[in-house]
Amino acid sequence: MRNQLDVMMNMAHMNLRREKAGEDEGPVAADLKLTAEIGVDALKGLFSTKNAFDTVMGAMWTAKGELATSDVDTITVARELTGCKVTLKAGDHGTAEDFDSGEVNKIRIKPLAGKCCELTIRLQVHPSDEQVAWLAEHYGYDLRVTVAQRQQSLDLQAGASAGAEAAVH
To answer: With contact defined as beta carbons under 8 Å apart, do 128 and 16 qualify?
Structure first.
């Protein structure tokens, strides 16, 4: 497995729902909106290649770290990370919860001065009852978010990354 993301983020929103499985109700799913203001280098794992990262993010700042353009409001990354192992940890020394099958999607990056950015992601996981309680207890707090993508998922996505990596708004 390779870490795609390892940053402190705030759990800004949580939506618990029951998935449909045909006519029956399926497992519990949680959609988590996580936000952070971080250095741009922490985003490298969200892009399929170093070249894609350099092309999209490299054009946003001057060598001094100032914004190169004021026309860019938000960058939306089209790539989704599926089949990921996700670990959420309360701070750097608190309790942690592992989710074996998570998805990262709706990735939005807002460039800021100083080669920083505001990152917003949606993380979808299938928590157990105990994990639902843990999520509720840590709602609104900063969490260490680690997303590791399994090699099989990386191989499957390699062919799919031929399209546009990101859209600038």
So the answer is: no
